[in-house]
Amino acid sequence: MLENTKNKIEDIKRRLYDREDTTTNRRKEDVLHPESFKVASLWQDDSKLEDDSNKMKKLPTSIFKKFFIGSAIFFICALGFAFYMFYSGGSSVSNDKIDIIALGNAFTQGGTELPIQIEIVNNNNADLELADLFVSYPSGADDNSNIVRLPRDSIGTIKKGQSVTRNVKVTLFGAEKSTRDVTISLEYHPQGSNAIFTKEKQYTVTISSAPLSLLIDAPSQATSNQEFSLKITPTLNTSLPQGSTILQVVYPNNFIFDSATPSPSIGNSVWDLSSLTMTNSVPIEIKGRLVGQDGDQQVFHVYAGAPSSTDQSAVNVVYNSLLQTVTITKPFLETHILVNNQDLSSYTASGGETVHAQISWTNNLSTQITDAQIIVNLSGNAFDKTAVDPVEGFYDSSKSQIIWDKNSVADLSSLEPGSRGVVDFTFKPISLVGLSNPVTAPQIELDVSIKGSQPSLGSTFSDVNNFDKKIIKILSDFQITSSAVYSSGSLPPKSETETVYNVTWTLSNSANSITGAVAKSSLPVYVNWVGPAAGNSENISYNDATRGVTWNIGSVDPNTGFNSNREVSFLISFTPSLLQVGSVPQLMSDVFLSGQDSFADAQIKSSHGPITTLINNDPNFKSGQERVIN
């Protein structure tokens, strides 16, 4: 055991001094080379030896240490520069060191000149070069007004520490207690720079009173299609600028203008206020109707001010403005007029034609209505007061009105919530043909009112009313007649022999102007077109392919055929066949006439029967000459 231990120790010694590393399998090699050392011949001081020793021990400085040292030096320099600029003031320009001070009255009357003193103070340590002052303010009373810009005030150079004063005058408009902003701007170049900088200040002024006050007296609610009125009263508080002053009303889209007092000076929405003085107001009352659904809100805008130079019907500079909101509500007791079973805003009918009308009613209240009464008034230049049938109502011919109440219609004694019903009547417009005094723009107006009582507290009743109105425009009596006379050839017509006839179409038109009128007919295969008659000036044509004859009439004046004539003549030829012997052949089919009634804005159509060889209009014609002979 001891022997083995010795062998192991010897083995470790051998490997320790062996050139081959048998433990890690790594071979160690070294290169021997000579190295000389300088040895001093004399003894040296210990301090010098220590310095040399320190130099040998000193290591090179790292790059991070150098960066840190450089940053610290830069920071110290920057801090020193900042302290210098802070205490010395430097020569840079700051907007914060420019003061714009506006001095003037913070309250002014609208339309009067307001003087403002503007002081500009340069607190910088550098000059402000090429300084320009700009002043602007709104021209009118609303935020959308055009901007008035006073002429540029070229100040020039404002030296450091210097103040400059300027005086300006502005004219502001607005409603009482409203505010207007005057914008003051200073443009300048810092000393030695080409850059442009701006310093701006808002000077707010309160309008103590408007030059022109507006007051609207109008309902906040209105029933659809029921007439209501707006009363606008402009009042002058101060003198107005030179030039004309107008009042403009911008209506909502669903407003129907009926009338105004006084009448508008332009269109139906502009009034001239030149007669307005501080002691004389000009009240304006506008009547009309709003059409819409229950709950719809409609807004009326009213402007007073100076008109535009290019459009005298529009306010350019607003002195005052306001708006009025009207809410459309459902009527308590609702009525509708139906004409020939149609509910339209306007209707057309022909003269002498029976018109059937209905009045439908509905109780929209949540409470009962008692003692209801329906009244319809009939009027107009085409109303025939002798041709009225009131059905269940009573017709008062002296007042031209029909009345329905609980005595004639039992349901009207008590109308329960949501209940509805209908009453009927008929009438006839006058015939427009052959009148000794021609009628212009013939129409009939139906005005219906329904009223009743609503029990509210005990025996107290409050009336509820509703109105409806309809206009029936009477169509012009636009007719054409067709006739023929013998011209040449065989009479009576003979088989296989030509006979020529002169055909004439004649127009008649009663009350309204007609536009785009056309008359059309056609020829049978055995009749040939010859051409217009001599002296004809009308636009008559023939289409050989369709065998159609067309008269392009165009416009037709009222009372044509009574005060003046309008007709066209043309020639046709007829060569009968043997099979037509003994018959009365047709020379031309029906004539169809059409045109647009300008007043009623409706299409009119009429026709006239065919022309045959029975030409009774010819004074030389004798009975029996209408039949074809052999």
Task: Give a structural overview.
This protein is mainly beta and 630 residues long. The chain folds into four domains: 95-209, Sandwich (Immunoglobulin-like); 212-329, Immunoglobulin-like; 333-475, ntegrin, alpha v. Chain A, domain 4 (Immunoglobulin-like); 478-612, Immunoglobulin-like (Sandwich). 8% of the residues lie in helices and 49% in strands. The protein is built from three helices and 40 strands. Strands 20, 22, 24, 25, 26, 28 and 29 form a seven-stranded mixed β-sheet that branches. Strands 2, 4, 5, 6, 8 and 9 form a six-stranded mixed β-sheet that branches. A five-stranded mixed β-sheet has the order 11-18-17-13-15, with no helix packed on it. The radius of gyration is 53 Å and the shape is elongated. The N and C termini lie far apart (173 Å). Residues 55-59 and 85-90 have low confidence and may be disordered.
Q: Helix and strand layout, with pairings?
A:
Layout: H1 2-16, H2 46-57, H3 63-88, E1 98-104, E2 107-109, E3 113-122, E4 128-138, E5 147-149, E6 153-158, E7 163-171, E8 179-190, E9 197-209, E10 212-217, E11 221-223, E12 227-236, E13 246-250, E14 255-261, E15 270-272, E16 284-290, E17 297-307, E18 315-329, E19 333-339, E20 346-350, E21 355-363, E22 369-379, E23 383-389, E24 394-396, E25 401-404, E26 414-415, E27 420-429, E28 443-457, E29 460-475, E30 478-489, E31 499-509, E32 514-522, E33 527-532, E34 540-543, E35 548-556, E36 567-574, E37 586-588, E38 591-597, E39 602-608, E40 611-612
Parallel strand pairs: 2-9, 11-18, 20-29
Antiparallel strand pairs: 1-3, 3-7, 4-5, 4-6, 4-8, 8-9, 10-12, 12-16, 13-15, 13-17, 14-16, 17-18, 19-21, 21-27, 22-25, 22-26, 22-28, 23-27, 24-25, 28-29, 30-31, 31-36, 32-35, 32-38, 33-36, 34-35, 37-40, 38-39
